[in-house]
Amino acid sequence: MNYLKHLLRISLVFLIPLFAWSQRIQSVRGIVIDSDIKSPLFGAIVKLAGDSATTTSTVTDVNGQFKIPNVPIGRYALSIKMLGYSQKQIYLNVTSGKEVQVTIELQQQVEDIAAIEVSGSNKQGVNNEMTLVSTRNFTVEETERYAGSRQDPARMASNFAGVQGADDSRNDIVIRGNSPYGVLWRIEGIDVVNPNHFAVPGTTGSAINLLNSKTFANSDFLTGAFPAEYGNAIAGVFDIKLRNGNAEKHEFSGQFGLLGTELFAEGPLSKKSGASYLVGYRYSTLKIFQDIGIKIGTNAAPAYQDANFRINLPAGKAGTFAIFGFGGTSKIDIVVSNQTDPGGELYGDKDRDQYFRTRTAVTGISHTKQWNDNTYTKTVIAVQQAKAKTMHELVFRNPDFTVDTLVHKLDYLFITNKATFNFTLNKRLSKKSMLRAGIIADGYQYDLSDSTFLEDIGVWNLRLDYKGMAVMLQPFILFKHKFNDRITMQAGVHGQWFSVNKNSTAIEPRFSIAYQTGNRSSFSLGYGLHNQAIPYYLYFAQKTYAPGVSSMLNSELGFFTNQHVVAGYDYAITPFSRIKAEVYYQHLTNVPVDIISSSYSILNQGASFSRIFPGKLVNKGTGDNYGMEFTLERFFTREFFFLLTTSLYNSTYSGSDGIKRNTDFNGNFVVNAMAGKEFNLTKSKSKMISTGAKVTWAGGQRYTPADVVASNAQGELVVVDSLRNIKQFRNYFRVDVKLGYKFQAKKVSHEVAVDLVNVLGIKNILGLTYVPVAVTSTQSPLREEYQLGFLPLFYYKIDF
Fold first, then answer.
1. Which of 128, 134, 294, 372 is the most exposed place for a label (fewest CB within 10 A)?
2. Are 623 and 588 in contact (CB under 8 A)?
């Protein structure tokens, strides 16, 4: 009863707007631009059609903008047509709470014929017109509709072909068997190492994403052979764009849910110039619960908060400026020393108190300038900071479970400051050819320390103590040529230079070609050479020989390399459904492995909450990934969608011992099947029930047999290195269900939803753990550690 009272009090904050019962209408507006040069298109015909035969049409003005007012709520098809350009059609959901704002990019035709209609919806197009293979466009609406995605773009991406998402505790993106460390997060043109709360150095994922998906524009997700403007990544790219706020009226949103309580606002700064703002803020709901006395099953409530903003400032002939930023703080204290019984804490190790803090902050300014009908430039300048701090204390107890002593065990503080300059020139050379060139310059400032206490000899082991600076330069040039309206070729070169040592230099060719055999089908082929630096702290990791005497282990280590080859086929079954298939092969060389004979490879790193200090490394390892992927998809139209993706793959590597093994991420197969349906309860479509379900079936995680004798001697899990990854846990299986109810008043929309993660409560295995047992016991000290069980997540959202 107390829980319900607290829940009601918090929910009342979001119920200030009153319900209204008159006709529910909204405006649809947007801008139509050239896909290559991003210039506005004047005179494009825009047609909006709903379920009835009634359609509404308008044309774009000299700024490429259009507006269709007084549109009743519901689902619509928006088609755009202009002479000399291919026709495009997208699907919209018009609600009472917010105006619909879209940016439509039309592709110029090479041949002077009637406009070719693009079969399918906007989901078949991508933002980056230079990408021809292994690229998927995603929208904010998807992150909210997919069951089990938790409104997290990383978890949403795990539904796509080639991506493995079989870890409930983290949102790591495992693409085609590669380590999640190989994924590049690019946000507003800035490369961000890890845009997550509780981010551990050397990883790109975590438990909770700090980005607010409500600030996203349509963005791209690339899984292989990506163009030359992307670098320092071997697996894939998440290229996220932040949208502009509403430049005509102020709009607000509030959301209360188990994963966060958030507020969101957008609106005009100057209606004359079109300047606008957009800002969102979120705070940990679990922390709120703890502060007001609601028990959540643990005293270690994760506390986090984050904010995202973008200010758009059109400046006429001077171009357009945008100021943007995002960031967050997070902390969790897992204290077991205050427990009075051995019941245990939900999180962390049972033998130590752990204190963990992280902070991420990014802010920058961008400038886009249209110089003429064929040339535009974009410049981005930004600064960011990533900070992680941890302290552990071992807990030693008396026989009656009282605390005897606390021994300081671990300390680390990682601070990385980064300044970025990104300049891109786009030039249309002719109707058939497009050139893009630029440079990304990153300057780093490091303040890193890491030490652990060796209790058996009573001394501290200083593993890292470095303060210094470094620079990475990434020049690139791309050329796209359309032989005709069916054959398009893209080629480019990416350069990479890192100042940490003379071995960190690379020249990377990229190439892709697409052939559209008809209005419905196309073939594609791509190749890319990609290099990546090791996690930055490993360059400066040190070995201490005596007090004050140490040396850096990996200061001369070079990049490791991945060569991608991919071929694909895409077929539009109907205007709103398609099948897609791809096959690929990747060969990795110069992979960092142990200088001594062992199974270690950096290809297995990047999916845990622990930093790894492997010792001295050399660029002598190899790896191979190959597989095939299949997608069957119906885009969300007529209140229904489904998505079926299947990936069959193999991922292997060789360490310094020369033995070919499975990587940690070689599950061999992934199948995702999901569907969603909306049911209108009234003719006015003001009340609606949404349903969705997702089934995930994936190969089990690889693991290494334990050495029980050594584990008993050391009091922790010790594996047999020579038997690395020869075993595999049982297959992963999970069913998620999402249910929601939406009510739309005149100018306000309300939504209540529950996401039932692992609704069947399947016990999927996360790994092995060591649990000490009595000497006389016949029970094994090894235990299977399970992932999350049934997890109900709810939220209430209001838009007005």
1. 372
2. yes
CB count in 10 Å sphere of residue 230: 25
Judge whether 325 and 362 are in contact, CB under 8 Å: yes
Residue holding tokens 């670098």? Answer: 231
Per-position b or e across 313-328, b if 16+ CB within 10 A of its CB: bbeeeebbbbebbbbb
Tell me the average pLDDT across 584-604: 97
604: three-class secondary structure by DSSP: helix
Helix (H, G, I), strand (E, B) or coil at 569: strand
Structure tokens at 658: 């020369």
- The enclosing H or E element of 285 equals helix 285-291
Strands of 219-222's sheet in order across: 135-138, 219-222, 236-240, 183-187, 190-192
Residues 516-561 pLDDT 10s: 998 899 999 999 999 999 999 999 999 877 777 778 999 999 999 9
User: Which two tokens mark 748?
Assistant: 């306000």
> Looking at 638-772, which runs of residues are DSSP E strands?
640-654, 660-662, 669-680, 687-698, 702-703, 727-728, 732-744, 749-757, 765-770
Q: pLDDT digits over 719-775, tens only?
A: 899 999 999 999 999 999 999 999 988 888 999 999 999 999 999 998 888 777 655
Distance, CA of 726 to CA of 701 (rounded, Å): 11
Q: Which residue has the tokens 């069957």?
A: 632
| Distance separating alpha carbons of residues 738 and 694, to the nearest angstrom | 9
The three-point CA angle 524-506-649 to 5° equals: 40
Q: What is the pTM of this model?
A: 0.91
